[in-house]
Amino acid sequence: MSTLKVNKVVNLSDGSDVTNLGSFVKLQTTDASNSSIISFTNSITDAFDTYEQYFILFNKLRLSNDNITLRMRIINSSGEFSSNEYSTRVLDSGGDGNHTGASSFRFNQEGIGNNSSGSSVFEDCGGYVYITNFSNNFRVRIHGVLSFGDTGSNKRFNPFGGGVNENTETTGVNIFADTGNINSGKFTLYGVKQ
């Protein structure tokens, strides 16, 4: 088997180095450890003020409680926005959900389980969320997917999307379980270039 090693990738038009080969720019990774909230704010370089869209990837989430929903709230200059102004549509084979007038975005319809046996994990979750419209006078919009084991270890896949009736500048987001903690898992925030 042969290995190709590339020392440099150059721009064909002018011979300059190509420094960014993709549209996703990694900004920060956070490991959950019995965390009540995973927070990404504009204190992170280039977060919520540089790009038009952000992407949060999460995987291998283990939850302290059984039958939970994963949630997200925006942060603005007044702090975490928790008014009943969020709307999320969640699609699920067990029955779709239209969650309006809520105090947070909702990522799943059926509850996520936390069943395991020794080192075998039967119920965890992973997914991603795209977030856009951070500027003043715009309302944040989201869409994404969640793949997880429910409380019966059934495999579920929920696409979701929505928005919030708040149009001051968004400076961050908080992700959390509706009850208990996120015991483990990894979250990574990316800026998305267009």
Lateral strand order in the biggest sheet: 1-15-3-11-12-13-6-7
Query: Alpha-carbon distance between the termini?
Result: 37 Å
Number of strands: 15
Radius of gyration, Cα only, in angstroms? 19 Å
* SS field, number of helical segments: 0
User: Which whole number gives the mean pLDDT?
Assistant: 91
Strand content: over 45%
- Helix amount: under 10%
Low-confidence stretches: none
Structural class of the secondary structure composition? mainly beta
Q: Given the C-alpha coordinates, what overall shape results?
A: globular
Largest sheet: 8 strands, antiparallel
How do the helices and strands follow one another from N- to C-terminus?
A: EEEEEEEEEEEEEEE
Describe it.
- This protein has strands spanning 24-35, 38-41, 53-63, 70-76, 79-80, 86-90, 97-102, 105-106, 116-117, 120-121, 125-132, 141-149, 155-164, 170-177, 182-192.
- It has 194 residues and is mostly beta strands.
- The protein has an eight-stranded antiparallel beta sheet with strand order 1-15-3-11-12-13-6-7, with no helix packed on it. Strands 2, 4, 5, 8 and 14 form a five-stranded antiparallel beta sheet that branches.
- The mean pLDDT is 91.
